[in-house]
Each structure stands twice: as structure tokens, then as C-alpha cells.
Design a protein that fits this description.
4 strands, 3 helices, alpha+beta
């Protein structure tokens, strides 16, 4: 039995994402050795352009990136 989470929060928009679906859809990116899961390609691409922006503790996830 694993303790892997079944959901994660998209760092760009704040949506709850099913980890298995994100993996199956290629909506996963790794940064600093940590996997991040995304609701869609747009969020993944935005994150890839500037991960530090989305990982800044002051960043407030929004559907309006």
C-alpha cells in the first residue's frame, strides 16, 4: 500500500486535479525534484514559463492567469 495522494492542487489556477488523470494526460511537470500536476495544457505551459512565479508563497492561484 502506498501513501501517494490521489489529488493535487494545480499551482497555476488552484483547481483540484486527479493525479492519475494528470499523469495519463501528460499534465505533469517536475521542478526542483518535485512533481506538479495540472488541470490542462495551458496551466502546465504557464508554469513551465515561470515556475518561480507560481511557487512564490505570495502567489494567489487564479483562473485568470
Amino acid at each position: 500500500m502506498t501513501d501517494q495522494p490521489t489529488t493535487a492542487t494545480d499551482p497555476g489556477c488552484g483547481m483540484t486535479v486527479e493525479v492519475a488523470h494528470a499523469k495519463a494526460s501528460g499534465l505533469v511537470a517536475e521542478h526542483g525534484g518535485q512533481p506538479y500536476y495540472f488541470c490542462g495544457k495551458g496551466c502546465k505551459l504557464e508554469f513551465a514559463d515561470d515556475p518561480a512565479k507560481y511557487l512564490d508563497p505570495a502567489y494567489m492561484p487564479s483562473m485568470e492567469m
